[in-house]
Amino acid sequence: MTDFSELIDRRHTNSVKWDVKDNELPMWVADMDFRTLPAITAAIQERAKSGIFGYEEVPQKYFDAVQGWYASEHNWRPDTDWMIFSTGVVPTISSSVRRLTNVGDNVLIQAPVYNIFYNSILNNGRHVLSSDLVLDDQETYHIDWDDLEAKMAEPLTTLMILCNPHNPVGMIWSAETLARIGELAAKHHVVVLSDEIHGDITAPDKGYTPFASVNKTNEQNSVTAVSPSKTFNVAALHAATVIVPNAVLHAIVERGLNTDELAEPNSFAIPASIAAYTQGHQWVHDMRAYIESNKQTVAKFVAENVPGVKTVAGNATYLVWLDTREIDMASDKLEQFIRQETGLYLSEGTVYGGDGQEFLRMNVACPKERLMDGLNRLKQGILAVK
Ligand SMILES: Cc1ncc(COP(=O)(O)O)c(C=O)c1O
Question: Which atom of ligand 1 is the closest one to the Cα of 235?
């Protein structure tokens, strides 16, 4: 069993997350405070030993490792010919937006959603069209199917970016839901780009379903992006895999990634990814159990100690979506208030769109001791508002 309780000091290490004041506790950007799988570090050290870091090709062994991981972890064996290496999920999304849509087209999303989707769409001169997720009184999000279909049917809607599982609300989409999205998308000629970067991080007894694995319709009308970056805390390695089964879509996306110079690995991306996908099974299962226990701690603590705040019960990601609708302050102001008052640095829900202006996002991928510090600061901050 891996020990995730070690408190590692990440201050002054050029970490985006930890580049904060000494009294501040960052629980915002999606980056874990755990050391990665030791086999990844060993693979990087081994590669570094040669002292030669020239241009590299992506070997078949890399694609075999990705295939093996998806077969054993997610019950899906994507053909290795469908795969393209890329230097990241976000670069892939931006490149695909440029290749699969035209300037002025609508790109469909489901807000509240990962804020960078907006950048990939808007920076390329496309429109954001959101079919907002709807929260019920059980704190569970749903798709408004009539709204989704109406927006897909708009003639200028050509691409949907699906977040599967969904950041920030933590939803795992069921196979039925994915089939229904796929059927509507095919009917209205909308390609689905499924961002599955959080797919490995689910509650121990809950797997996620890859969009393209559901049926032939989904398989042939999709671009799937996966990466070890969230799973193994290796974001700065810049490694992702794009899986495009349909030959025409594959050629278009591959040309885009090549033209945008996104398809060549750095010296460590390949050995680290192979180590992750071939030796990381147990580590990931241990990590999922630790995250689940942290999430339960948050749910209990918030219910018992933080008046006016509720947790949304998502089964995926290491991010907890905190419902602050009972508190009379927009989330950007509330986030700033809590940060100034207590040093706790959360993500303001506003940036995710939809109903996000009444939510905060808390990253719980940290040792329990640090989590408790964060929860006590949250309590202190919320009590100070009231
Ligand atoms: C849904 C989602 N997609 C993509 C990314 C980032 O991907 P990459 O670092 O590979 O560009 C994140 C990071 O938080 C994310 O939450």
Answer: 9
